[in-house]
Design a protein that fits this description.
- The structure is a single chain.
- The chain has 15 helices and 2 strands.
- By secondary structure, it is an all-alpha fold.
- Strands 1-2 form a two-stranded antiparallel ribbon.
Length: 379
Amino acid sequence: MSFWTRRKSIDAMAAGHHGHHGHQLKKTLSWYHLIALGVGAIVGTGIYTLTGVGAGLAGPGVILSFLIAGAVCACAALCYAELSTMIPASGSAYTYSYVAMGEPVAWFVGWSLILEYTLVCAAVAVGWSAHAAGLFRMIGTPEILLAGPHAGGLVNLPAVIISLAVAGLLSLGTRESATINMVLVAIKIAALAVFVALVLPSFDASHFTPFMPQGFAAVAGPDGVKVGVMAAASLIFFAFYGFDAVSTAAEEAKNPKRDLTIGIVGSMAVCTVIYMVVAAVSIGASRAEVFSQSEAPLVFILETLNHPLTAQLVALAAVVALPTVILAFMYGQSRIFYVMARDGLLPQALARVNPKTGTPVLMTVLTGVLAAVLSAFCR
């Protein structure tokens, strides 16, 4: 068949990775690894910043905004869960498109995902660099190596280092990188739990009145910016992005039909609860119109409650845990690269799996290098 008419059946795609010498991934992941992968991808800097931005648009109603955004994303998450269990092969939307609509569509979907995941990895690496710059200054790193050309520097060395470090970790083995990801996710959640525990005694229910000062529907505010619960929900929607990366682990799940469903839906449920709880205690401790003016609202609230050391620790936890976002998206991108190579849409030599680690090392390193180059010189 030609490129324009070639398709694969569900059975052929689900079993296509068997029988390819050196092209088979190891099944090493359980459902809790997949939940941690999803939470690591979803809970990034958004919870430290979007809580304030959303509160500025919707007031206390931002809690409802998180619920609405989570419910909308849950619909997509359930679709991914159904498709990933029906077709337990790596590749996510690329693989599903190949089965449903054929190779041309799969080709464009695959490259779109690669572009998207690469940009996410590079953008988060640059964001991590901005937070970690102080640590690099402490060890004497020249300023010219702490930012790209757009910011008057030469190369963003911290962003390059974190990109290559994550790629190196992924190359060591999927289970090993998943275990470290679980540790980092635990640090991230522990920091948020400490925040909740410290601000909860200052909870004031009067801060929730009025609950929706800007109304429910998205309407234009005095400055022309859309405000209201739905306006905040449309912005917060992007804070839930990342659950689809779990579906790229289909071939490496020990029990795909069970583990993928739990991983995708479970990570969405956990993140929705985390977002709503953090938003609720933030509003209870400080009025929405006050902390929404801060670029780091959680740190601001802790400082106003006389917890300066904890505020710095929470900020540090964000820096420590940010690589989980890079890890999840870089993992997903390398698997999409890998499946496209295995299907012949890229040189098949790139789909070789290391017999010791059970990972596509060459594709993982290539993914890391692409992200490092972009983060080194781009904004």
